[in-house]
Amino acid sequence: MDHEGHEGHEGMDHGSHEGMDHGAHEGMDHGSHEGMDHGAHEGMDHGAHEGMDHGAHEGMDHGAHEGMDHRAHEGMDHGDMEMSPGGIPLAEGGEDRDGLEMDVLQVRLGPVLRYWPAGLVLRCSLQGDVIVEAQAELVDGRARQDDEVVGPARGIDNIASLLALAGWDDAAAEARRIRDTALEPGDGAAGSEVERLRRRVRRSRTLRWSLRGVRRLSDEDAHARGLPADAVGDTYDRLIGMLDRAVAGVAATAAGDTGTRPNDAGRTLSTDHLAHLVTGLDLATARLVLASLDIHELLAGQAEHEVSHG
Amino acid sequence: MADPTPMTDSPITTVAPGWAIAALGILGALAVTAAMLDGALAARAGGKPGGTMGGPVRPFGEAARLMRQRRRTTVEADRLLWRLGGAGLLVVAALMVTVVPLGEWTIFDLDVGVMWFNAMDVMVWALVWLTGWGANSAHSLVGGYRFLAHGLGYELPLMFALVAPAIAAETLNVRAVAAAQEGLWFAVWMPVAFLVYLLGVAAFSVWGPFAPAIGTDVSGGARAELSGVDRLVFEAGRYALLAAGAAFAVPMFLGGGAGPLLPGWAWVLVKTVALLAVLVWLRRRLPAFRPDKFMEVGWMLLLPAVLLQDLVVAVIAVWRS
């Protein structure tokens, strides 16, 4: 699907193309599975950091020099020049939702970020902390059909991400432990554990209060955006749905039913539809919504070509 | 009132300023205790330790890691304000405990000790905001915004929660408030104020459900760019604030040093540690209160509830006198 409009591209965003997937990809994949959960690790701090905040600001290293030059110029030209202290252009104003002018910040989320779909890059225009415009693309956009992650572990991993983003460290830690159990061969314990996690999550009124009503999707919305049917509802509904699928998935795996892999059915999303889902939300809410979609695989969308050079 | 030792008959000694060092030591020990407890609870929950050391020794491993981590900086950061913000939390916590009597000793016996504490906790607004703003980075800026949003929700209820014991004791002097609880702790007959106060402590410590300002969902928020020693000082400040908040609750709501067998100072410490343990445990039980939603709770629920509590306390105080 992503073969059209790729003339100018070498390798990087190419659809079916081997070559790329090893260098950049390996790092990322690890990120989402292991490294990412260990927030306190030094390496990871860096990963998240670079990807998000600094990625956009090339020329950081020349900070000291450029800063000086610019200051000198500014004085002479009376601010005629475009001002860019430290090599970073100043934010420009834009109309806010309420009609007032507000600075627009360009912030890039991903491709490596804790509790974030691996390889997804979201270029956001922020006013305050509200995303007013977003463009999604995928680094190395090849869906990995040959993924060796089996059974419901990946779904449970997504549950852990959502719980962590909701600020519930304890439940997130429990989900991670269950994911590890589910990855071990011959697991029998994961079933009762995941059932217990589901009960615990359902019991939490605070969590329900927090996630209720966040990006509610109707049947038509979901259909129009190419989302699976279980994305209908609000973020809380989707979380419960993820838990239900995990319980079913673990049960199926325990029964030796590895052929159907109920957890993976229809969980590939195109990046085209993601940007619409987060526009108008604040940064944190947008991340909750993305995590609630239970994304296992992403496909690079059609829009990728235009935005990647934007 | 100019007299430094007013009204009540409870013995109190204002110690020499040098003892402030000892108070800092106690505050530090309490903060470390809280951090160790948090590490132990995290290990029990199955969380991966942040390094080679897990469980109760985790804070030491973390401290060692941060102390040798190289300090990162951002382009065009406002370093002065950024550092002031990060280091200020620890200072504020230390200033808070100066008015908490440890049994019969106190560093300051201020007539307006309650207001002093309140003034200190309001400083946290500025400090967390500066930490977020000074780094010149989008995520930390968002963290700063989020703290202010939480602040709008928690601060007024917290202030009115502090009013209740002051009305009942008819004084703003912390020692006198403690002495006024002879026989019945304020926590018992003004539970709403006590609970709201505890929520406030968690909030100004950027703790547990009030941690979205430094939340994972905004990549660390206000502290996103803090590294190395700066980060260590910031985190130590949060634990110290939590400990100071717990310590201040003892004279305000839990009868100060009153208790059988043990001397007063020991009871103050025991009560402080118990409360601190509750606050640390609370963090593990609750997901974050998203700032946009919490504002509603603060104004529609907590504020009326605590005002009602103040009214009840005031009526009882008038009726008794």
Summarize it.
The complex is a heterodimer of chains A (310) and B (321). By secondary structure, chain A is of the alpha+beta class. Chain A is 43% helix and 12% strand.
Structure, described:
In chain A, α4 (153-165) packs antiparallel against α5, α4 (153-165) runs antiparallel to α11 and α5 (169-183) runs antiparallel to α6. Chain A has 310 residues and is α+β, with helices and mostly antiparallel strands. In chain A, the strands form 2 sheets. In chain A, strands 1-2-3-4 form a 4-stranded antiparallel β-sheet. A two-stranded parallel sheet of chain A has the order 5-6. Chain A has helices spanning 23-33, 42-54, 63-77, 153-165, 169-183, 190-203, 205-211, 219-224, 235-254, 274-278, 283-292, 304-308, and strands spanning 92-95, 101-109, 120-127, 130-138, 268-270, 297-299. Chain B contains 11 helices and 2 strands, in the order βαααβαααααααα. Chain B has a two-stranded parallel sheet with strand order 1-2. Chain B has 321 residues and is mainly α. Chain B starts with 12 loop residues before the first strand and ends with a helix. Chains A and B meet through α2, α4, α5, α7 and α11 of A and α5 and α10 of B.
How far apart are the first and last residues' alpha carbons of chain A, in Å?
21 Å
| Unreliably modeled segments of chain A | 1-81, 304-310
In which range does the helix fraction of chain B lie?
55-70%
Strand content of chain A: 5-15%
Biggest sheet features of chain B: 2 strands, parallel
**DSSP strand tally of chain A:** 6
If you average the pLDDT of chain A, what whole number results?
68
Order of helices and strands of chain A: HHHEEEEHHHHHHEHHEH
If strands are numbered along the chain, what order do they take across the biggest sheet of chain B? 1-2
Largest sheet of chain A: 4 strands, antiparallel
Biggest interface: chains and residue counts? Answer: A-B, 53 and 44 residues
Model regions low in confidence, pLDDT < 50 over at least 5 residues of chain B:
1-9
* Structural class determined from secondary elements of chain A: alpha+beta
| Global morphology of chain B | globular
